[in-house]
Amino acid sequence: xxxxxxxxxxxxxxxxxxxxxxxxxxxxxxxxxxxxxxxxxxxxxxxxxxxxxxxxxxxxxxxxxxxxxxxxxxxxxxxxxxxxxxxxxxxxxxxxxxxxxxxxxxxxxxxxxxxxxxxxxxxxxxxxxxxxxxxxxxxxx
Length: 141
Known about the structure:
single chain; mainly alpha; 2 domains; two-stranded antiparallel ribbon; two-stranded antiparallel sheet; 3 helices; about 45% helix; about 10% strand; rod-shaped
């Protein structure tokens, strides 16, 4: 097996480094830029207030909403018509931004590490010199 010339090694490291860097940066940008509505629970999957007791506690003034509903003290309407609000009528959607961002951290870190490796390959390809201290393609007379 013939040894690989430094020129070929430089070319390969520049090509692979550029491709790896481009793919890594593309994936970082793709993960970073997401639609804002992605963070919120879809309205079709909104949780009824009685079912959300473990995740949320709503206060009106200094009073919790749950006891106000069970005691029949929460009314909705306008000046001409009002009605008692039932717990099942109150629907909650959650902002899951912190959870989704935390789930993306491992992927972002791996893409950042591959971008760093790509920069090392590019630098090797651009700055590599032959062992004798001359340019790899220079002619010796």
